[in-house]
TrEMBL record:
Species this chain originates from: Rhodofomes roseus
Region of interest (Disordered), residue spans: 1-52
Protein name: F-box domain-containing protein
InterPro entries per the UniProt record, alphabetical: LRR_dom_sf
Source organism phylogeny: Eukaryota, Fungi, Dikarya, Basidiomycota, Agaricomycotina
Residue ranges, compositional bias (Polar residues): 38-52
């Protein structure tokens, strides 16, 4: 008896390769074994039976390698499967022909620097199994060979400083001891998330010449952030820029990237990202087709200000306009009229419509639903992908505005529409799930506000609270989205027993399988009940394209009846998934066990149903009944009329007298003269020196003692005797120094000058 067919009908990779390659002949013995066998037969036999090894070499026919594109697509498909990287590494070690393309795929995208650090010799690493801990000693020039060889294969790499998986000590080694200027010369995409200034500075080592995409998240304001941004802007071929900053956006951010006109993707999440200069800069990028803006915590007025400089003079800045930002009150403390304007714009459908970003095709907005609606009013470009991240649950009127704007402005171009919850909403759900605070509330999210979307291919809604959908909503989606291929309606939603099963049943999916003929992936939580007679009575609800179904935490009653209904709705279903206790918490074990039985019953029922349909006679072809015809003659003679028109141009003579008007004008040229006087009086300083001579009085009695004697001596003899005695005694003036003599003589002269009148008068006295 043949084994039961499994739910997966795809053959393995080995079977596909074996079917594609021609039949191989039996493997010949190796060269060593042939030489050993020939040696037993003697020297002559060995000499005669020797053949080159190329004759015995097995011939391979790698048909897939003849087309490099097909090879890359095959390897990428293997990489995306569970354990695909390990399978590719084994393939590279097994087949030499696949080695190079497989290594290029494996090393193309790295999420850490650990694989590169592990290329150093094991003797250099602190721990060989944990290369992120760093090096025990500095590498020699020969130790860089493997890292440089594999570094040329790297095209994308990520670094998250907060994870701590890579030691910061490895980056000084890269900077100081690298044998080449760029360790990753072919790097085109870099993701760098740092919390410190030192961590942000390390990214300069990898800003290579081939950089095309940069994702930068900065925790604190770096003092040299301006210089780093200037270096990033120097890459003229930069096509994708994502900048997240937890502090205010630099003032000269738009001026730095003014010349990067090759930007195609821009993502800005920072306080100040809604400034008018940022809006003007993004709107001026000619190749921009993807934009991501964070509107969290902003007012409607701030969102309107993003478009102020894009189309100046639009008339929406006056106090009387609904969409204006001026309240008409001239005061510093102005009241916020954002809520009033939002309500008025919702009622009157008034507001600014500048028509910015004409070439934009992908748009991602995060924030309140009202801000998202305000931003979408300004976008008139043919969007193909729209992703909004809103706070859950959204206000009913704001959700209605968003749905109306999406269908009104992008209805005939939109192909992908995703709605997810903001990080604050996710955090609230996580707190409730970990703190035993009870089950999360479930709310209804109406889809009836959506209108005709003929080109919509993917609709993905993933919210933590707004998880309730009705059967009318699903039927409405089936009517307005005929091209739908992927539909996900909160597949992770959980309905606890206290709340009960969801209102959407498995029979309610019949409109999707009937109207959406290209639907191949469906993820929704349902209440799986028995099929109705209306569902089984028609084959129009059987989908030929539905291959994957994810029911999550769906409720189920009878596994056999559900398997019968699924075999009718999706007879070609390939993958059926649900949550069980091993992969998700809060699972109801009874439901998980019942879905396990459905997966066991379904392959047999699908096989039986397909065999029955093959044996059934095809429906009779409709007989063409021609409409009744009646012969009738019609006179088709053409009536002609001759008509002439006389066209005489009217001619008028007109003269123009042109006289030159002369105007005399005089210009007086008077030079401006300025008088400048300079005080040139010399500076005189009187300096006096007081000189007081030191005078010393000294009296010397130089008269000899005379005795009166009656001696008859001549007077001349006495005078000679007295002079002789006087000369024999030393004079006092002889003992005085010359300066003292000069001072004394000056004093005597002054004295004689002032006493001259007295002496003159006394000279007349007897």
């Amino acid at each position: 008896m043949s084994p039961p067919p499994s739910l997966s009908r795809h053959s393995s990779l080995a079977n596909r390769f074996s079917s594609a390659l021609p039949t191989k002949r039996p493997r010949l013995p190796s060269l060593r074994s042939r030489e050993s066998d020939a040696s037993l037969n003697g020297t002559n036999s060995r000499r005669n039976s020797y053949q080159p090894y190329s004759v015995y070499q097995q011939t391979m026919y790698p048909t897939i390698l003849r087309d490099p594109d097909a090879t890359n697509k095959l390897l990428e498909a293997i990489l995306e499967t569970p354990g695909g990287r390990r399978s590719l590494s084994r393939l590279a070690r097994t087949c030499k022909a696949f080695s190079e393309p497989v290594l290029d795929i494996i090393w193309r995208d790295l999420d850490s620097f650990n694989p590169l650090i592990g290329l150093f010799p094991a003797t250099l690493l602190k721990r060989a199994r944990r290369p992120g801990l760093g090096l025990a000693r500095n590498p020699e020039p020969d130790d860089w060979a493997r890292l440089l060889a594999y570094g040329e294969r790297v095209r994308s790499i990520s670094y998250v400083e907060s994870s701590g998986s890579v030691s910061p000590t490895i980056f000084p080694v890269f900077e100081e001891l690298r044998p080449k200027n760029w360790l990753l010369p072919n790097l085109t995409s870099l993701t760098w998330k740092s919390e410190t200034s030192a961590g942000l500075e390390r990214c300069r080592l990898f800003l290579g010449p081939e950089l095309r995409s940069l994702t930068m998240e900065v925790g604190t304001k770096h003092p040299k952030l301006h210089d780093l941004l200037v270096e990033v802007a120097s890459h003229a071929r930069l096509s994708a820029l994502s900048f997240t900053l937890h502090t205010n956006l630099p003032d000269h951010f738009t001026d730095i990237f003014q010349n990067n006109i090759a930007l195609e993707k821009v993502c800005i999440a920072a306080p100040g990202a809604l400034a008018s200069r940022v809006g003007k800069w993004t709107a001026s990028l000619p190749a921009l087709h993807s934009l991501q803006i964070d509107l969290t915590g902003r007012t409607t007025t701030a969102v309107e200000g993003f478009f102020d400089d894009i189309s100046p003079g639009s008339g929406y800045s006056t106090p009387s306009s609904v969409g204006g930002t001026d309240s008409g009150v001239f005061s510093g403390e102005e009241f916020d009229f954002s809520e009033v304007r939002k309500s008025a714009a919702r009622l009157t459908r008034d507001g600014p419509r500048h028509g910015a970003f004409a070439a934009l095709s992908n748009l991602k907005l995060s924030g309140d639903a009202a801000n998202v609606a305000t931003f979408l009013k300004h976008i008139t470009s043919p969007l193909t992908t729209l992703e909004i991240v809103i706070d859950d649950p959204p206000a009913s009127e704001d959700w209605q505005d968003v749905c109306g704007l999406v269908c009104e402005q992008f209805g005939y171009t939109l192909q992908n529409f995703r709605v997810s919850a903001s990080s604050a909403s996710r955090f609230s759900e996580l707190v409730r799930s970990t703190s035993r605070g009870g089950d999360a509330p479930t709310r209804y999210l109406p889809l009836s506000h959506l209108s005709y979307l003929p080109r919509l291919i993917c609709l993905d809604i993933d919210l933590p609270e707004s998880v309730v959908f009705s059967q009318e909503d699903v039927a409405h989606l089936a009517n307005i989205c005929p091209s739908l291929e992927i539909l996900r309606l909160c597949p992770s939603a959980r309905f606890p027993p206290s709340v009960g099963p969801p209102p959407l049943t498995l029979n309610g999916l019949a409109p999707l399988t009937q109207n959406c003929r290209g639907l191949h992936t469906l993820a929704v939580v349902v209440n799986a009940t028995e099929g109705t007679e209306a569902t089984f009575s028609t084959r129009a609800v059987s989908s030929r394209s539905l291959l994957r179904l994810n029911v999550g935490h769906s409720y189920i009653r009878d596994p056999l009846q559900v398997a019968v209904l699924l075999s009718h709705l999706a007879p070609h279903l390939d993958i059926l998934r649900w949550f069980h206790e091993k992969n998700r918490a809060g699972v109801i074990e009874v439901n998980a066990a019942s879905w396990q039985k459905v997966s066991e019953f379904l392959p047999y029922l699908q096989d039986i149903r397909l065999r029955e349909r093959q044996q059934q006679a095809p429906p009779p072809a409709p007989v063409y009944v021609p409409p009744p015809t009646v012969e009738k003659a019609v006179d088709a003679t053409v009536v002609t009329v001759d008509q002439g028109t006389l066209a005489l141009p009217e001619v008028e003579d007109e003269g123009v007298q042109a006289e030159v008007e002369l105007v005399e004008m005089g210009v007086q040229m008077s030079p401006e003269v300025e008088s400048v006087s300079i005080d040139a009086t010399p500076l005189l300083i009187d300096t006096g020196v007081m000189v007081i001579p030191a005078v010393a009085e000294h009296a010397v009695d130089a008269h000899p003692d005379f005795e009166e004697k009656a001696t008859g001596v001549d007077d001349e003899i006495l005078s000679e005797t007295a002079s002789t005695q006087t000369s024999e005694k030393p004079s006092v003036l002889a003992h005085m120094p010359p300066p003292a003599m000069s001072v004394l003589s000056l004093t005597v002269a002054v004295y004689r000058f002032y006493t001259y009148p007295l002496r003159y008068m006394f000279s007349f006295l007897p």
